[in-house]
Amino acid sequence: MISYIKGELVAIEKEKAIVDVGGVGYGIFMPEQAMGKLPPIHNEIKLHTYLHIKEDAMQLYGFLTRDDSEVFKLVIGVSGIGPKGALNILSNLSADDLRFAVLSNDVKAISAAQGIGKKTAEKLIIELKDKMSMDDILEHIATKDDVVSSVQSNGVQTEAIQALVALGYGNTEALQAVRQVEVTENSNVETILKQALRIMV
């Protein structure tokens, strides 16, 4: 198993990045979101990888974080979803957005991915609900620069998400907006809610 690859980014193609490691160019398939965050060509990068082996090919899938890689492995463990389908899901939703979609039964958000129908999305939710937790999402929301404790931060952010859902916004849409709001020591549910609403308008 290849856990990660570290080398020079030499090219970015439609669905994959080409990384030179000691003179060998590895073609690594990546989610669209992640490819948009790659550094300029000729910079060194490190990708957490998953090697998929089938009868006629070996394919590498790469991710910017270990967390994304772990979520990818959970998704391909769902019957009926292969690496390509999992990549499409993670191109549409970040790892945390997918967790939230699973925990809130947001079939619509998951089935928006190319090649993923309603029945497949429902199956994914059923099979992964016990393997994902809200605590994981909230831990990732807090940034390193937050001056409030993660407990305080998580509490007001959770309430803001619940308030947005009560206003009629989708669960995943609400999470995405709240994640973009900068939390300070003076932040409360009302201030987070107002900023999130501005983002969503």
Radius of gyration: 18 Å
Identify the overall geometry: globular
> Numbering strands along the chain, what is their spatial order in the largest sheet?
1-2-3-5-4
Summarize the biggest pleated sheet.
5 strands, mixed, barrel
- What is the residue-averaged pLDDT? 86
Number of helices: 10
Structural class: alpha+beta
Observed structural traits:
201 residues; 48% helix; globular
Describe this structure in words.
This protein has a five-stranded mixed barrel with strand order 1-2-3-5-4. Helices cover 48% and strands 19% of the residues. The protein has ten helices and five strands, in the order E-E-E-H-E-E-H-H-H-H-H-H-H-H-H. It is an alpha+beta fold and 201 residues long. The N and C termini lie far apart (45 Å).
